[in-house]
Amino acid sequence: MKTVDLEQETNPWEAQAARFDLAAHKLNLDEGLWKVLRSPSREIIVHIPVMMDDGHLEVFTGFRVQHSIARGPAKGGLRYSPDVNLDEIRALASWMTWKCAVVNIPFGGAKGGIICDPHKMSMGELERMTRRYTAELFEFIGPEKDVPAPDVNTNEQTMAWIMDTYSMHARHTVTAVVTGKPIDLGGSSGRREATGRGILFVINEAIKRFGMSPETTRVVVQGSGNVGGIGAQLLHEAGYKVVAISDVHGGIYNPNGIDIPAALKHLQATRSFEDYPGVQRVTNSELLELECDVLVPAATENQITSQNADRIKCKVLAEGANGPTTAAADQVLHEKGIFVIPDILANAGGVTVSYFEWVQDRMGYFWREDVINQRLQETMVASFNDLCRYADAHSVDTRTAAYMLAIDRVAYDTRMRGIYA
Fold first, then answer.
1. Which one of 25, 93, 327, 348 has the fewest CB atoms closer than 10 angstroms to its CB?
2. What is the DSSP track for 365-408?
């Protein structure tokens, strides 16, 4: 029975829906709007034939879910994975709607994915699959409609293929159709580091609430990719004591702090933290339960559940990954007095700088990296303060406050546009 419960608890769509329902209830949201905002506005499934390198045809299934366009074009990543499914894409699309609303940028939410194992495919196969997927979705994406971005197992190169394919069909170059592109093709300075940098900015604000300073703050980071690795590096540079970090195989721990640049260099050279000197080895689950001031789960979803939430020992939980905490774990963390910076704010640095990239592409004028970082900081700090004020005003935890703030903004815009006309 417990397995079934945990399976339901870790279903991303169920988790998103539970949090939405709680926030909508506290807002006394009109029943009609409740139904509108709970459901995606459009779900597209495509079956893509791709000629493989050995000459046989393979058919891949792809999705694009557009949750809301009430505040502007839909926005969201595209992931390639054998585990992609419609529930996951639905949940991620709705999370994007709330994320964009929390940081108050004029986008709705979308997400895309293709069921495939990109590690077993050649560059040529990936390119053909990406181009065919883009061609199938040509009428549904675009700078004014839906703007994809990189996600799990996709990158700048993937975005360049999408931009080129879309431009071929449009008969002119359209750089603003995607974000996360190479800088020379209309990408933005600071985009790669944006999610990690956003996490740094909100952690800076959170520790002020506890009267702490970076030098005395012990940080544990789960993950060492684009979010965890860059986040840990930036936290280290800002003077924080990063005491643990991990990759998919496991982590390393030193209560006196780890030299993060050296550890990441070792990881890049050997593809593992194994043999890194002067540290203790820990599993990813042990890492989450280490004594620390700030815990940053920046790997995958469903890391903190009802099974382990009571063993989390941090003061501040800054969610770098999407959905690292299940809805069932929220109450436990709240009762323990842990200050949660929810994912829809903590990792919104990426979509904020994606918005800056879209703006720059549309006006054909590009900003310096220091300008982008300054504007990102202003956005993240203002959003953090909005969230805390909302939580205090409504006497709710920060997770519920984030959803209430986001739903409030989207509902207001939906109502003002006259959905009942």
1. 25
2. ----HHHHHHHHHHHHHHHHHHHHHHHHHHT--HHHHHHHHHHH
Rg (CA), the chain: 21
Spatial separation of the C-alpha atoms in residues 349 and 329, rounded to whole Å: 25
Kindly give, in sequence order, each residue whose CB lies less than 8 Å from that of residue 382, ignoring residues fewer than 6 positions away.
Answer: 104
Angle between helices 228-237 and 194-209 (to 10 degrees): 50
**Catalytic pick from 99, 111, 181, 315?**
111
Q: Are 190 and 372 in contact (CB under 8 A)?
A: yes
DSSP for residue 325: B
Establish whether 315 is a catalytic residue.
Answer: no
pLDDT at 301: 84
On the 0-12 / 13-18 / 19+ scale of CB atoms within 10 A, 199 is: buried
For the whole model, what pTM was predicted?
0.93
3-state secondary structure 275-290: CCCCCEEECHHHHHCC
Mean pLDDT by 10 residues, the chain (421 residues): 63 87 94 93 97 98 96 97 94 95 97 97 98 98 97 95 98 98 96 95 96 96 94 97 95 96 95 92 95 95 92 96 91 94 96 98 97 98 97 95 96 85 45
pLDDT at 130: 98
For the chain, the distance separating the N- and C-terminal CA atoms, rounded to the nearest angstrom, is 47
| 177 sits in which H/E element | none
Q: Other C-beta atoms within 10 Å of 54: how many?
A: 7
